[in-house]
Description:
This protein is mostly helical. It has seven helices and no strands. Residues 1-8 have low confidence and may be disordered.
Amino acid sequence: MYACAKFVSAPALVRRSSRVLCQPLSASMLSSPEARSEQAWPVAHRAIQTSAAHRDIDTAAKFIGAGAATVGVAGSGAGIGTVFGSLIIGYARNPSLKQQLFSYAILGFALSEAMGLFCLMVAFLILFAM
């Protein structure tokens, strides 16, 4: 890969192809055939501006971003554990409030789980939508 990058960034190649790359694509394609024969590199050899190194960096950034977004799923698990741990402690202190404590615990579970699912959704959006 280093040899390929060294070849692509050779000064002679950059000097020869700079005139063709600076022209708009429409001007290059609509020019007369004799004018195109004077150019050092024909328009058909124009490469896409994104190199392999840039694509690798973009892919790595997507994976790092998705991994950072999934940290919230672990926080959701910790939140669910805290909610049900508090339910057990509250029930042990006052068993007569069992139904009210359980409804609060289910509400806390749902909110905590929703935040975990939102984090997972953001991770999937980073991976597949960008």
